Amino acid sequence: MTIAAVRTHRLSAPLHTPFVTALRRTTTVETLVVEIVDDEGRSGFGEAPQVWQVTGASIDGSRACVHEMLGPLVAGRDADDLNARCAEIQRAVAGNEAAKAAVDIALHDLAARRLGVPLVRLLGGTGRRVPTDVTLSAGDAVDLAATARQRRADGFTVLKLKVGTDAAGDLDRVRAVRSAVGPGVRIRLDANQGWTPREAVRVIRGIEDAGLDVELVEQPVPHWDLDGLAWVSDRVDLPILADESVYGPRDLVEVIRRRAADLVNVKLAKAGGLRPARTLLELAAAHGVGTVVGSMMESQIGVGAAASLVAAHGTTAVSDLDAAWWLAWSPVRGGIRYEGPTVVLPDAPGLGIEAVDDVKPQQAGC
């Protein structure tokens, strides 16, 4: 059974609430969906989210990579030889992790559909319910407290508070959120590279001294500053989670070697897909490094793949899979759904995607 076509779809969908971090503010999800079709008409889907400020990936760049390199590479090849196809796309181009991830996920989705099993079964698991945190966008203390109360009322028990925009006020923000939700909710912080090492240590020590019961702190310093990340980790008690500092296995090896972080956030669009993400999870487990699987701002396709990975392999902390929850509506039909703080995987082949609406597909050169 061969791959007959590779198509791309440019999607844009609004968020119900602006998403604000130390790096960016967005009100939409902008993403490229890759569709791989076999010679019997079955389709597998993957996606490459556009995140200029984090990965540098753009829709036009990912589309060019798929149309000029990755699509022609897999077209006409055996759709069932999944490991070989995924290995080929990783070797085909330098960088372009988001484009690679989209093709990798689509290949996995298609393989699961051809077998008639959910993606989680293909990955070696059976679970269908995956807990997630929810993000509180960066803002002032009053607004964050109000949002935190609302998210707790929505049923979320793990809140990811975006900080790093103003180190001097971050302690007050955390204090306001803790006061708003009480002791029964876990709070984790994500500075999105917004602090210097000295600012990070000062803020984190202030949080520790205040007894605000924070679970962990994600990416406190710029991604390139592994010495600074290690310096912070060595001087605070709270666990430090590396996100933008780790894309692939070589990055994680360096973090482990320097003892720069206690946990790693594995994201498919950073790692290049499910195959390399599984390697990261296994490498972290072998070295006693904690794990979270995260998501960019993406649709049910990317989040469904990430949630399937978590359901099959597990993580040491609640994962960060709320991205599709932010959508006011989606042009993607089918796939995951949310029940409060839980991602529910569909009981359908592959990712359970039924259709991608209101798009004009373009076919790769294959």
Description:
The protein is an alpha/beta fold and 366 residues long. It has 2 domains: 2-116, 2-Layer Sandwich (Enolase-like, domain 1), CATH 3.30.390; 122-354, TIM Barrel. It is 39% helix and 24% strand. It contains 12 helices and 16 strands. The chain has helices at 59-74, 82-92, 97-115, 119-122, 141-153, 167-181, 197-210, 226-235, 249-258, 268-271, 274-286, 300-313, and strands at 3-20, 25-38, 43-49, 129-131, 134-136, 158-162, 186-190, 214-218, 240-242, 263-267, 290-294, 332-334, 337-339, 342-344, 353-356, 362-363. It has a 7-stranded parallel beta sheet with strand order 5-6-7-8-9-10-11. A 4-stranded antiparallel beta sheet has the order 3-2-1-16, sandwiched between helices. The chain has a 3-stranded antiparallel beta sheet with strand order 4-14-13, with helices on one face. Strand 1 and strand 2 (25-38) form a beta hairpin. Helix 1 crosses helix 2 (82-92), helix 2 (82-92) packs antiparallel against helix 3 and helix 7 packs parallel to helix 8. It is globular. The two termini are 16 Å apart. The model has no long low-confidence stretch (mean pLDDT 93).
**CATH uppermost class of the largest domain:** Alpha Beta
**H/E topology pattern:** EEEHHHHEEHEHEHEHEHEHHEHEEEEE
Work out the strand percent: 15-25%
- The CATH architecture assignment of the largest domain turns out to be Alpha-Beta Barrel
Helical residues, percent = 25-40%
CATH topology of the largest domain: TIM Barrel
Helix-and-strand structural type: alpha/beta
- CATH homologous superfamily of the largest domain? Enolase-like C-terminal domain
* Low confidence ranges: none
- Describe the sheet with the most strands: 7 strands, parallel
Number of helices: 12
Radius of gyration: 20 Å
Strand order in the largest sheet: 5-6-7-8-9-10-11
Indicate how many domains the architecture comprises.
2
Extended strand count: 16
Span between termini? 16 Å
Shape descriptor reads globular
Round the mean pLDDT to the nearest integer and report it. 93
Active site: 162 (proton acceptor), 267 (proton acceptor)
Cofactor: Mg(2+)
Protein name: Dipeptide epimerase
EC number: 5.1.1.-
